[in-house]
Amino acid sequence: MDATVDPRIANSDPTAVSADRRPIGWLSTSTVPESRPTRAPNYNARPRSSPFLCFLVLPPLFSPSISPSERQEVRLNPNGPLPVKPSTTLPHSMQDIHYDNAKFRRRSPFKVITQALVTSHIRYCCRGCSTGKFLMLLMILGLTYLITHKSSDHSASNIHLNSAANVGHKYVKEGVSIIDKIWRKPPRLPPQLPPDEAQNVSSSFEEQRLHWFSRKQKVKEAFVHAWSGYKNHAMGYDELMPLSQRGTDGLGGLGATIVDSLDTAIIMGADEIVYEAVPWIEKQLVERIEKKGQVNLFETTIRVLGGLLSAYHLSRGDKGTISDSGIPMTLKGVKSEIFLELAKTLADRLLCAFASSPTSIPFSDVVLHDHSAHPAPDGLSSTAEVSTLQLEFNYLSEISGDPKYRSKAMKVLEHIRSLPKVEGLVPIHISPHSGQFNGENIRLGSRGDSYYEYLIKVWIQQKNSGNQLNYLYQMYEEAMRGVRHLLVRKSIPKGLVFVGELPHGSNGSFSPKMDHLVCFLPGTLALGATKGITKKKAIERNLLTPDDLENLKLAEDLAKTCFEIYREWGWQIFEAFEKYTKELELLNENSNVYKLIGPVLVKQDLAEANANVRKRIEYISAELKRLDGTLKESEDKQNSKKESVLQLQQKIQTLQAGKSKS
């Protein structure tokens, strides 16, 4: 019996099926059993096979029991039907319209059971919902779950104050999403206390006092050591370069180290340093101020001008400020008036930074000798720099009686008051030409830190002087609310409260990076909450508002974070400086002095250091001997070459003489 060709082959319908439910696109030449009636073709029937299941309906083409010569394909031809060449009758097993050649392959028991359970009808029903659609639906459900659900592990990060007022405000954002938890890089944790020091934490008050007293003494010894190195190698310069043992003027050449260290020496009771520094200041600083060139307004104000004002304040013993502070005042013969006169001389030249600017924002650099100023190379000033001049200039006006210093400096804060802010937070750059903030980078670290610090400190300073500048306190309160709302988070996994950054403004992403300079904030928050008095007095006078209580709680948490960072890290850094950066003077057997600077040969004891010195000397001596031998060999070769040249010249002269005679 010849194979029957469906008339729709001529129409090239790739979705058509034959009368026996096989796809028309592949036409087998197998015969239809006579005992089985043929059905009329249903041209409207929907194809039930998916493209990736087409191998299930092609048994005649891939059956291993048929030789290649017995296979024949009839493909669709858009120009009309192709002739079908009759072939031999296929085996009876090849005539099954539901034939699946998978039956010839070995199947596992699990597959046999699943195929028995999943009937043909169920497969056809499920085939309408493709695997891709199912996976897409599954992904959408998963994303919906991740977005709508927060991690319950960190829901406790919402901090409530346990106060009588039952403050309901929150300064830590609730929860951390699972995605953030997965992708967040774990922080580097501070070192843990060793067991012996961990026990000291719970020891008696007297033991802790002795522990910290010993550390205080070591810090003072380090200060004295640093001063001695500076005095011996760089006296009069701004800074000491310890490796090269020479000085450098990186801050304008006003002897910044001398002036800036003076108040520290007074507070520590290092009178010998004070008596060494004061004569230099009296004799040299005036000439430096009159003849030196460019200085930075901010650095010179906080280091040199601030150092002079601090020395004046501490040396003259203002009533009610020094006698109760516990600072050892044993100075005799130090005239405090010289510090005030020098401060006025310097400040008069620094004021040109305000006068030269077209706005209330001063230029960043001042040329001292010609009373001129100019902006930084990029034309911008740091917000912290222009707003960290007021304490010094205000105090100078107070003790000198001249209001011009206060007037110029306070115009900066008055101008910033009128500028737009993000919940009291400001970018870290400002233009002295336009008077506007530049960029969107918001942080409490470098270039932004002391703006917030000076808001509350200048308010307290002026309040005590009789000037009520309430707008400063309002700016401070607004800024601290913005800090709690936008910048405060908790670390994972230790749960330390920290203050992050907004590099691209409030609409950008949050950066979980806390600059070490942000550790000024706990003290500033405590100072603002108590309005410059003790916490006990503030509570007795009922001055603490709900915001103040919340700020005090935040101050405690941030102080804990900074304490965890600096308690061991800071002390280990200090010990490393002590161990590796001091200069050792070691004597060898020939009483020659060898100065070893840095971490190369600093060891636990002097004997080991001497042994290392001897080894290095022996190595250097051996290298010198080897070099001497090499040089001697080179000289011998050169001498032999010279002798050969001389002999050759003599022969040439002899030959020339013989030619002339002949």
Overall spatial form: extended
Helix content: 40-55%
Largest sheet: 3 strands, antiparallel
Q: Give the termini separation.
A: 128 Å
**Number of H/I helices:** 21
| Beta strand % | 5-15%
Output the structural class.
mainly alpha
Quaternary class: single chain
Q: Radius of gyration, rounded?
A: 44 Å
Trace the largest sheet across and list its strands: 3-4-5
What's the average pLDDT?
75
Contiguous low-pLDDT stretches (5 residues minimum) are 1-78, 80-100, 150-170, 319-324, 584-605
The counted number of beta strands is: 12
Tell me the layout of helices and strands.
Layout: H1 59-62, H2 109-117, H3 120-127, H4 131-148, H5 178-183, H6 195-201, H7 205-234, E1 239-241, E2 246-248, H8 256-268, H9 271-291, E3 294-296, H10 297-316, H11 337-350, H12 352-355, E4 365-367, E5 372-374, E6 381-382, H13 383-386, H14 390-400, H15 404-417, E7 429-430, E8 437-438, H16 449-464, H17 470-487, E9 488-490, E10 497-499, H18 521-530, H19 535-540, H20 546-580, E11 584-587, E12 593-596, H21 606-661
Antiparallel strand pairs: 1-2, 3-4, 4-5, 6-7, 7-8, 9-10, 11-12
Helix pairs in contact: 8-9, 8-10, 9-11, 10-11, 11-14, 14-15, 16-17, 16-18, 18-20
Family: Belongs to the prefoldin subunit beta family.
Region (Disordered): 1-42, 71-91
Keywords: Calcium, Disulfide bond, Glycosidase, Hydrolase, Metal-binding
